[in-house]
């Protein structure tokens, strides 16, 4: 009886350890853990994780290996901060200027183009600010500001937020007022709120393709300006900076490989009839 009780305690301890590994890594909460085996590296990103692409790539990378990866859900700004603080091993982001500074400052290496999508400005079908007639993205934003139509901003220092602020700057406008609504939330949640409250929002094309069925009152009203092309890069820790730095570097090589790029370019085609992301070969024409 005593022996059985001891074995039970040991089993509970093991299960608790497994649970803790699957939900945290290096002090960061794992939104999910992919692969089979001990968590050996962590990755921070937003959209590729939310939309399932990260799971597909990671499981292909980890196949046949005794390892797994912890996904930390974060926008580009927070992801960069986590990498700088050595809280994660690798990031996938879309903030070119900040990425280049990270490389120049020496706390990130191996910046690699992995793919792209684009931004759409979506809004109510009746288009109260008439942005469908805009010639450029800054023109579209200027029309929204002039009409004081509801505009939703993530306001979270993510890559999307950085791009939004750049477009406002190009338009010569510092947005403020009750029409400019800051959500401090992720892409999908903000898109759904814009739908419910009949406002404008700049969403990435991947989220739009996967979630448009859930936002019936919104439509794409402006797209195609080169400034709205959204390139993704992977960056990782310098060698030895974190326990998972070396495996993170291998992961970047896999993502950039023919197999990794095929997974990216074809992701979503079966389910949605079109890919959610373009591969690096396509994205290269828009790389900053």
Mind summarizing the main beta sheet? 11 strands, mixed
Report the strand count.
Answer: 13
Helix proportion:
40-55%
Identify the CATH architecture of the largest domain.
Answer: 3-Layer(aba) Sandwich
Shape: globular
Query: Structural class of the helix and strand makeup?
Result: alpha/beta
Distance between the termini: 68 Å
Q: What's the CATH class of the largest domain, please?
A: Alpha Beta
Radius of gyration: 21 Å
How is this structure best described in words?
This protein has 288 residues and is of the alpha/beta class. The chain folds into 2 domains: 163 residues, 3-Layer(aba) Sandwich (D-Maltodextrin-Binding Protein, domain 2), CATH 3.40.190; 112 residues, 3-Layer(aba) Sandwich (D-Maltodextrin-Binding Protein, domain 2), CATH 3.40.190. It is built from 13 helices and 13 strands. The strands form 2 sheets. Strands 3, 4, 5, 6, 7, 8, 9, 10, 11, 12 and 13 form an 11-stranded mixed sheet that branches. It is globular and about 55 Å long.
């Amino acid at each position: 009886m005593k022996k059985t009780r001891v074995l039970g305690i040991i089993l509970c301890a093991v299960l608790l350890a497994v649970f803790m590994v699957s939900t945290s890594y290096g002090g960061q909460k794992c939104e999910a853990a992919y692969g089979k085996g001990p968590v050996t590296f962590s990755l921070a990103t937003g959209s590729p994780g939310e939309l399932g692409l990260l799971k597909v790539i990671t499981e292909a990378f980890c196949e046949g290996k005794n390892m797994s990866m912890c996904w930390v859900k974060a926008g580009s700004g927070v992801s960069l901060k986590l990498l700088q603080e050595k809280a994660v091993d690798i990031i996938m982001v879309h903030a070119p200027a900040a990425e280049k500074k990270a490389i120049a400052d020496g706390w990130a290496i191996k910046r690699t183009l992995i793919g792209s999508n684009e931004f759409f400005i979506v809004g109510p079908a009746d288009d109260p600010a008439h942005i469908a007639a805009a010639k450029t993205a800054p023109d579209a934003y200027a029309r929204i500001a002039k009409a004081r139509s509801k505009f939703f901003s993530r306001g979270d220092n993510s890559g999307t937020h950085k791009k939004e602020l750049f477009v406002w700057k190009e338009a010569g406008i510092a947005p403020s007022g009750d029409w400019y609504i800051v959500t401090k939330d992720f892409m999908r949640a903000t898109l759904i709120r814009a739908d419910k409250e009949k406002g404008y929002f700049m969403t990435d094309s991947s989220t739009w393709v996967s979630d448009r069925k859930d936002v019936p009152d919104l439509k794409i009203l402006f797209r195609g300006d080169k400034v709205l092309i959204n390139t993704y890069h992977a960056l990782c820790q310098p060698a030895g900076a974190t326990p998972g730095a070396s495996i993170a570097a291998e992961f970047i090589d896999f993502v950039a490989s023919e197999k990794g790029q095929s997974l990216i370019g074809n992701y979503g085609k079966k389910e949605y009839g079109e890919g959610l992301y373009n591969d690096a070969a396509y994205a290269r024409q828009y790389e900053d």
